[in-house]
Amino acid sequence: MNNDELFRNNLANLTAWFKVVDFNNPFTLEDFSYESGVPESGVGGHCWKCITVNQCYFKNEPNKKPEEFDYSTMFIPKFAQGIYHPNCECKKLGYAAPLPEEIKIIMGKKFTDLYNRKIGLFYGWGYNDNDKTQFEKTYLDLVKKEYCNSNYYVREHTNIGCNINIVINFPGKNEKLGKFYKIKTGFIVFPNKKIRCITFFGGRAK
């Protein structure tokens, strides 16, 4: 680690967000297919848990970051107590909360799928065929804003990645103007302030 990285590592537990970095691991989630994820046996001596979060950012709070290894039921020397497993080489580097304009969203064909398969949702919120550009921009802006405001929680961490639900309050339009729809959206946290949409609409949020 250079001096800046060492400084950020020392402050990781005091900052709002942190970035997971394994300086000896060249692999990230982007090196593997979206469908299969990281092999559960790991790659190059690195396990899937570490590869799937390498270079990823998380809010430094329970339920908003990958679950860390519990050493309370076993004796492991302090020097071997890594973050996600014994002898894990991952480090946490402290950062301020990301800004919405820094977040890149990987949508793939999710908007197309919505219009092809769930167009009733689109119309039901008061939008019409001329509103698609506005609808998509509103969705992306809200997701970025709520992610940066840490209005999300970790649903599961698997070899596909760290799956989070981001809660957004989507506004209606036209005859539904003034009405808001509080919904869950599903994303995978990707390296370097990117998130990939896996579920456009995951149901109503409380």
Low-confidence stretches: none
Write down the overall mean pLDDT.
Answer: 91
Radius of gyration: 19 Å
Order of helices and strands: HEHEEEHHHEEEE
Strand adjacency order, main sheet: 4-8-7-6-5
Quick overview of this protein structure:
By secondary structure, this protein is of the alpha+beta class.
Describe the model.
β7 and β8 (194-199) form a beta hairpin. With 206 residues, the protein is an alpha+beta fold. The chain is elongated and about 65 Å long. 23% of the residues are buried. The strands form 2 sheets. The chain has a 5-stranded mixed β-sheet with strand order 4-8-7-6-5. It has a 3-stranded antiparallel β-sheet with strand order 2-1-3. It has helices at residues 3-10, 48-53, 110-117, 119-124, 132-148, and strands spanning 17-21, 57-59, 91-95, 104-106, 152-158, 161-171, 180-190, 194-199. The model has no long low-confidence stretch (mean pLDDT 91).
